[in-house]
Amino acid sequence: MCIRDSINAEYGDFSSGEMAEAEDASSPLYSNLRQLISVVDDLRDVGLQQYIALPSVVVVGSQSAGKSSVLESIVGQDFLPRGEGVCTRRPLELRLVHLSEHQHKLEGGKSWACFDGSEQKLYDFDMVRDEISSLTNRVAGSNKGIVDEPIKLTIYGRDTPDLTLIDLPGITRVPMSGSDQTDEIEAVTRSMTMRYVKDPRTVILAVMPANTDMTTSDALQIARQVDPEGSRTIGVLTKIDIMDKGTNARKALMGQEIALKLGFVGMKNRSQADIIDKKPVQAAVADELAFFSDHPVYSALPTQTWGTKALVDKVTSVLFGHIKHYLPTITKELDCKLRLTNEEFKALGAPVPIGHEEITHSLWNMVTAFCEMFRASIRGSYDRRLHSSVIQKIDPKAISGGAKIRYILNQLLKEYGEHHEATEEYTDSDIETAIRIHEGDTLPGFPSVDVFEYLIRPLLEKLREPIMDTLNEVYMSLDNLANQLLNKVFRRFPELHSETIGIVSAILNQELERTREVVESVIQAEEGYIFTNDTDYMAPVSYTHLRAHETPEHLVCRLLLEKKKKNN
Predict the structure, then answer these.
(1) Is beta strand 151-157 parallel, antiparallel or unpaired with respect to 112-115?
(2) Using one digit for the tens of pLDDT, what is the confidence trace for 405-421?
(3) Burial of 555 (0-12, 13-18, 19+ CB in 10 A)
(4) Which of 258, 326, 363, 374 is 20 to 30 A removed from 288 (C-alpha atoms)?
């Protein structure tokens, strides 16, 4: 009845007849529920949890809050290690599989457990407890150390619900004396818990003792941090039978103290004496039912607020709804990952060549592909190999290849092009000084042409540095382009990749030096012969202009000054 009420209230997708089928393990609907959970478990088995968040139920709580007792009540078996201090020292990924009556009979009416990586069926749950301890000590050591490496355990049983639970080490405030636990034990356990519960697809089972102040509960505090609305947190109040006389958990169970959308469930745990006497879990669950049914306060509360059955039904329905809600999103994310993986797989190309001829042919193809892509990039030609989304994760606004080189050269032209005034730094005094320096034995009124060269050559020399800087910038652009393409073509073969980088770098350096010599020759040629037969230069100094302003002295000086004034 609890499954029907909770699922209809939360999701409203099932009729009464369908929910009656869901409670029957042999019904198709129940089988679909199991299949949903199995799909998530299978995805988790193949390691998908590393890439895509999967729905799960995480049990959190402080040390000695009763988490182990809650889990054993849900499973119906006594199988968890007991002792002083922290008992759960590695996360336990617990997968519960409900057996049909036929399956149960085939196993002789027994429940069993299997650990991940082992096909051995353990029918003795004392052996399961010993194996959990052994696996814990093997990784975390035998001196109470805590390690974030989960143990995977699957339990099959007739009374076992279809669930997947993750039990985490309890939040510990003070390290045990003489143990491997450090003073940062609280930070370690909190960090481990936060890593699991921060995912919005995780259902949080917050376990806290009813005989303490709920507002100080570590489990609730952590749940509130990641789930402030309480939409994926189920509160579990343990030790409800040992509360102080005259007090009860009625208000807490009804959500009147702390509100959670999924509510609270009260539970009566086995006492320490019951554990020592090895009281069966099924008998303890029966005692729990009798306790709540006969209690003057709790018997008046709705049955979905107390007892192991109510908790199992609530967790099952919430997990089912969570999987149902997120499965389409998980499918889309999985398809996206598969598509990207297939693209990366295709980018790897053909299988690795083996024979001498195959190696030569493959090497020739790779060198050819590199040269073709390099040439296409410089020329701006389209090549589909240059636009692979898998390999080139570059800012789409960034430019490379020929477009980048054009941009670099245009920047130089823009700075020293049409609107650049080379003589703007010369003053009248500078020009007069130049004329005096070169007067010598020349005729008055006819200054030497050396005055012009004296003033112009330093300006030409100033162009040398920006031109060489531009050359180096073009070289760096080509080097970066070559490295990107080499990484694309040769990344399958690291040693060959490294070798080709060295060869290409040597070629680019060699061509850089050759280009530097060519550029240097051009600069020297321009300095060796100053070209003045230019229309832009000659237009303002026509013959009539010269005659109109000619004076016996300082002819060149006057012309230079007038040209400067006109430009200003």
Answers:
(1) antiparallel
(2) 888 888 887 777 666 56
(3) middle
(4) 258
